[in-house]
Each structure stands twice: as C-alpha cells, then as structure tokens.
Amino acid sequence: MTHKSKKPILLAVCLLVLAAVFAGCGTAKNDPAASSNEQPASESASESPAAEDPFAKHQELSVAIWGIQDGFDNPEAKNDTIFNDMTKKFNITVKPVQITWNDWQEKQKVWAASGQLPDIFANALATDNRALYSTWAKQGVIKALPEDLSKYPNIARVMELPAVKPLTVDGKFYMVPRMGFITDGNAGVMDRPILYRKDWAAQAGYTSDPNSYEEFVAMVKAVMKQRPGITGIAINNKDYLLTPMLGSFPELASMKDSWVKEDGKWIPSFASTKAPEAVKQVWQLYHEGLLDKDFAIQKDADGLLKFVNGQAFISLGGNIGANIEAFVKANPDAKVSDIGFMRIWPAADGNRYNFGVTPYWSETFFSNKMDDEKFDRALRLVDYMMSEEYSALVNNGIEGVDYKIEDGKAISLLSADQNLGKKYPITAVIGWLASWHSEFSAQGKRVINANPDLAAFDAITSETFNRFKTENKPSPINFEITLMSTPAKDKLAGALTPNNGGIVDEFFNVILKNDDPVESWKAVVKSYDAKGLQEAIAEVNAKAQEMGIE
Question: Is the alpha carbon torsion for 426, 432, 436, 439 positive or negative?
C-alpha cells in the first residue's frame, strides 16, 4: 500500500494507482452484534456477565491520522452516515487529533514525551524507525497487543503473515500494520507505476513494452525527438527515481530497506557489487537529458502534473486516477486509453519484477494509558475497519444508496458530479486508519464510477494489476532479514533515513554530479562504514545463522 519519502508515496501510491483502481452494510448497522468480528458462542459463554455485552459502556477514543480534523470540520460531516453508523455500532465518540504530513512525526514524539499520545494513532515506526519503536515499547509508551487475538479475527490473521511476524519487541506486538494487501505477493504489483503516453510511443514506432534498458532509452529519445520541449521522464517524488532499478538490480529499488546475500554474507543492497552499475544507468538518463532536469528541486507530485498537463512522456509514480479529469481537459486530443502502465524490462536473469515491498506501510498504535476495557473497544474498532465489509463502505459507499450490485458488479448510483469523499468527509479520512483497502480495489470489487473517464481508467488499472501479477515476479526481498532488528542494524537504519532521505539523498547527489557514478557510489558505500555498516552486517549475519536463515 508501500512507502515515503514514503510519506506521500503511500498515500499517493496505494492511493496512487491502487487507490485509483483504489458486503456493503448488509448487516444491521446499528447492532453491535452484527460486527464483522462477531464472537463465537463458546467464547461469550466463558466471559463474565459484565463482559457479555462488550459495547455496553460508552467510550471516547481520541484518534490521530493525517488530516482528520479537516474531515470533522467539513460542513457535511454531521451527515456522514457511514461514520455515524460506525460510532453507533461500537458505542463510541471519536475525538479527532489533527496531524499533517508536515508535522506528524515531531508532534507524536512530543506527545509521547509528555504522556499525551492519542488513544489510537498512525505512525511508521515498525517499518521506518525500529529503534524508536523498540524504545517506546520498552518504556511503556505504546500498548502491547494481547496474546489472545481470537476476539479480533482480522487483526489475528494479519499478525500471522510472514512479513509481519518479525515486528515484535521482546516477543510482543505493539502495533497493527496498516495493510494494503493480505494476499502474499500482491503488495508491490503496482507500487512503482511507470505511467506513459501510449499514443506518443506508438507515433514514434513503439507499440509494446521495452525489452531492455537500451530499448527504453531509445523509446524515450524517439518520443522526445518528435515532440521538442517535452520532458522525457518525470518523477512523482524521490523514491520513484529508483524505479528503473527493477530492471537492473531489483532489490536496489528498496534501497533503504533491502538486504541481499552475496558471497555467503547478508549485506544491504546498496552495498552490493551490483549497485554501482545500476546507479550508473539512472545517472545516464539524467546526463543524456532524458530525466527531468528539475527532478531534484521539485515538490512532490510536480512531475506527475507535467504528465497530466501533456508536458512529459513518462511519470515515474503518481496518482493519475485522481487527476483523470484534469488530464482529459489538458489533452483534448487524447483519450484515457492513451495512458499506459509500462511493464518494466527484464532483469539480468530474464524475469520482469514488481516492486518488493511489505504488504503494509505504517502502523496503527495504541496509547498505553488506556485501560483494558477501553483498549478492547479500540481493538474491536480497528478490527472492523480492516474488514471487507468496511472496505466496501470506504470504496463504494452504502449499498442501495450509493451503488447497486448488477451482474456481480458494483454499479454507482451517484451522478457524475458526486463523489464519496464529499458525501462522507470523515470516512474519507478516518477510513484509512487501519487499512489502505488496496486489495479490495485491485480485486475489481470497487464500484464502477458514474464518470465514464474514471470508469475507463479504473478498468485499465484493474486489468494491468492482474496482468502484472501474473506475468511479473515479486522482487526477491527476504522479509526476515529486511525486518530483522539488532542494535547496529537499527542504528544504521537511522543513518540511512534521516529526514526521509539518507541513502536516497546520497543517490540523488551522485546522479547530479558529473563525476564517474561508479566510483562515486563506491565512495558513498565506504562512507557508511563510519555510520556502523560493518557492525550491522556482522550482527545481522550472526543472528541469521542463529535463526537458521539461509
């Protein structure tokens, strides 16, 4: 759903294409017993009389997720039926605690230090800052999940996934991952989209996906020759500049996180002997004038807007689905079907790879100040918000009101100028608290949009997802190693990702310089010895041997 510079990536990646691809409430919405995590009779019989109705006592839950206050401040907030029904179902009041993409990390550090964390909040600790995750867990800042998760079946299922199991501290989980996908291997299928103008490529003589880096370069040059003044390759934000690595050294596309086994030893992918040549290819794209000359100084989404406005042939990443109407308006001679998703060229082993990523980015946390009764309510709420029932509400609205099922498809009942975000403004924000709901969309369950252009693009995206899932392979990432926590590895991770940059900023610097990129990259790798690279390698290999990881 990954990763940000995972910041706007996942709200603009899983949301990107996947949310642009991206039941109903068939149960009684106001009946707590109708929740998707309904308890079996054997369990309720074993509970004390006071616990037979877990929703009897009203609870107030403070919640922090990006932009939540904006949803509550919307004039239509009081009419958000999906949200109102949910609060009735769980007998809760939600107190919004605002965070934004500009302040979320610092705000939550201050709240943690002062004992003022919200009851439920989103952060990216287990994925992006294992050292702080471990510290908050051991200091009692965040609350551990109970060992018995049988009352929360959706949470229980997620915590058993191979890509989640390593995220424990002293044998306990202190978060619930915000999932994009549950099905293994699906998460990265379209997490690194290469958007391109198929019509422009065809006019330049290219009617199929490139079969090599060299053919890709030739295609871009041919299109740029026909259309002087356009940008060849724009990028949505920093991490997307790593996309071409999928065709040269796929593990390096996850530069901040992935480890590879080389000469019998696990090492970070950026330190591999394969890395310099992969870096050189991207360096060539820039120095041959194919890569946007402004890529390093742009704000997030500036590159995508060039594509939307007909000023760029390719955009590496970007939520084009949210910009379809702008694309149609800016390109009157083009059709939605002229937008394509380019399949990455084969790597050295002959395989084409999708991005290797955890099926989640960021996590839902719980303040340790909650008592067990309140914590149970918070867990039941999060469990419900991970369910397919809730995914249908977030993606499609209310059955019979916003959509109908016809021939097995969800058909919108909204007019072309209506949308769920305006109708249900709180749900449009809080709906992503526990899940990105990407799998629901990718499986083709999302409503067919009343807007024909959006409906056409959704169909293209769904078809592409299924094709890439079948024809490509997931990038070979070993999650046991990638998610392993050791003191030196956690310290190195902090050096790799300061201010959401680190090694990716080093990569940018190498691309921009005129110096030999191979030698420059070797110097970057050497500089990390002073930041604990060799100690991290030693600890990871010792622990891998102890755990029997090959």
Answer: negative
- pLDDT computed for residue 395 by the predictor: 93
Instruction: Detail the DSSP E strand segments found in 413-504.
Output: 473-474
Length of the chain: 550
* Residue-level pLDDT at 450: 78
Residue 163: predicted pLDDT: 87
Q: Could you identify the residue written with the tokens 């109102």?
A: 84
Which two tokens mark 93? 């009041």
The C-alpha atoms of residue 49 and residue 30 are separated, in whole angstroms, by 22
Low-confidence ranges of the chain (pLDDT < 50): 1-50
Q: Is the dihedral of CA 386, 143, 97, 75 positive or negative?
A: positive
Q: pTM for the whole thing?
A: 0.78
Q: Which of 238, 361, 228, 245 is nearest to 302 (CA)?
A: 238
Place of tokens 């996947």: 18
In the chain, what's the furthest Cα-to-Cα distance? 77
Nearest to 95 by CA among 114, 121, 75, 113: 121
Look at domain 23-186+359-442 and name its CATH class: alpha beta
Residue 292 contacts residue 235 (beta carbons within 8 Å): yes
Q: How much helix, strand and coil, in percent to the nearest 5, is found in the chain? A: 45, 15, 40
Distance CA 14, CA 28 (A): 30
Tell me: the pLDDT tens digits for 5-52? 444 333 333 333 333 333 333 333 333 333 333 333 333 333 444 458
CATH (residue range 194-351): 3.40.190.10
What stretch(es) of the chain map to CATH 3.40.190.10? 23-186+359-442, 194-351
The gap between the terminal CA atoms of the chain, to the nearest Å, is: 28
Specify whether the CB–CB gap between 277 and 508 falls below 8 A: no
- pLDDT tens, position by position, 238-262: 889 999 999 999 999 999 889 999 9
